[in-house]
Structures are given as C-alpha cells and as structure tokens.
Amino acid sequence: MHHSVHLGMAPRRVPVSLQIVNFFNAFTQIGWAIFGFGMVFFWVFTLNADFSFVTFRGPHETVEGKVTNVESTNASQNSSVVQANHYEYSVANLTHTGVSYSNGQRVTPGESVTIEYAEGNPKKSRIAGMRRATFSPFVAFVNIFPFLGLVMLIGGTRSGVKRNRLLRDGLIAEGTFQSKAPTNVRVNRRRVHSLKFDFVARDGRHYEATALTSDDSRLQDEATEPLLYDPNDPSCAYLLDEMPARPEIEANGELRGRVGGAVRVLILPTIVIVGHGMVLLGNMGGWG
User: Fold this and answer.
1) 288 FRET partner, CA 20 to 30 A, in 81, 198, 216, 257?
2) Residue 246 or residue 76, greater confidence
3) Cα–Cα dist 165/247, whole Å
4) What digits encode the pLDDT tens for the residues 123-151?
C-alpha cells in the first residue's frame, strides 16, 4: 500500500468480513490455540483434583469401614500409579459405599479402615488420609496454560476492536519510522517486532504509534507510513500496513471485504469452542 491513501470520510462502512479478520487477528489466534490446548489439561487434571479443603470441610464423623476392592487407575502422580480404593460402611444401620484415591498409601480388600463422613450427610465420605478425587489439588497449576491463552486472546481481541473502530472513525496521518525492537513472541517461527512511528495529529502535537508485526517489510518501504488515529485520543493509532490485518481500499475510498480471510480466521476458534463445548456438555451429563 502506497503512503498516499484515499479513504472515505468518517464514519466509514467497515465490511463484516474485515471486522472478523481484525477481531480474530494473529495474536488472538495464538491465544485461541494456547487456550484450547490448555483446556485439555483443565478437563483431565483440574476437574479430577481433590479440593476437599473446600468441599469436604468439617465437622466430620468417623466410623469403621471395610475395603471392598482396589483398582489401579490409568493416572499417576509423583511417579506412582493412583489407586481407586472402594469401601463400604454403615451409619444408623444404613450401608453406604464410596471410593477414595491414593498413591503410595496402599490398602487391601477386606482391610478395616477409618471412614470420615460429613456430619448430617453420611453419603459424603472418604477413607481417612486419602483423597476424594484422582489427583491432589496441586495439579491445578496446569490452569496457567489456559489462563495465559485467555490473556492473549483478550488482548488480541481488544486490539481488533480498536482497529475496527479506527477504520470506521479514525483520521488519516503519516507516520515517520523511529525505532524497532524485537519481542519475545514468534508467529510462524518469525520473530514479532515492535515498530514505533511518530506522527502529527490535527492538534499540531506529536504522538507515537506502535505496530507489532512479524513482517515489517511493508512498514519500512516508504519514507512515511499511513495510519489512522482517534481524533479524541491521538495516542490510540493503527498503522494501515500492519500485518496481517492490512485493509484493501477500493478506488472510491470504500474498504473492501475479506471473505476468504474471515473464513480462515474462524476455523480455529470454531474448533476450540465446539470441541470444548462438547466436553462440557458431556461433563454436565455426568454431573447430572
């Protein structure tokens, strides 16, 4: 895109397909990928972690019970296979059953064990010293992965919202390149760089615009680069040649849609939402 840009007067019509491309930009895509991958750990570990310190707080009653069966699960913790220890016990002449989990601590079928149960709810129980779920609560640290993905997703989405707003209402200015610095992010194995540009807004003052891109060739091919800025807050600006959301402009100044791009950027979010939605519905059925 040459630096001489002929955009229509604001407010402009921003095609829905172009809004989608901006909304689900490259950083948002990375966020969706990390979030989607991290949620696998959430379903596998966090939902099967024992949070008895919250869900099984006292006061407790105790009674003697008997181990009826011991099974090795497919899970392991601290390099030890997790055992599912089934048991039965009686309270007020009513027999109850339960299962507690352990790794390292072993019991055998027929062995007598101490059962702790919730006062007023004898069905809620565990073998003393064991867990009520497969893993200890420490596995919850895996939630850092979906959390980081969510942070990137939200940050990228906010950036896309800003781009769409500036395409609709922003004023055109010319930015002069000032500096370039690498970031810790890579997109398609290419280092993302932060490029800073100086421009003069309509109030006559100088402001700075920042572009994050893994392909800066289009941002340094002219003496100045076109950008859009918020007339009410010129510090909010967007380089038009910033990859990968570079808009195409018709001869009459109208913004051109990007239907193919919109379809591509919706693939990953759709897979994540549908995939984890199905897992959620499956778990809800199990909870019911």
Assistant:
1) 81
2) 76
3) 13
4) 999 999 999 999 999 999 999 999 999 99
Question: Would you call the peptide bond into 122 cis, given omega within 30 degrees of 0 as the criterion?
Answer: no
Residue pLDDT, tens place only, 266-288: 999 999 999 999 988 887 765 54
Q: What pTM, to 2 d.p., does this model score?
A: 0.77
Residues in a beta bridge with 84: 71, 101
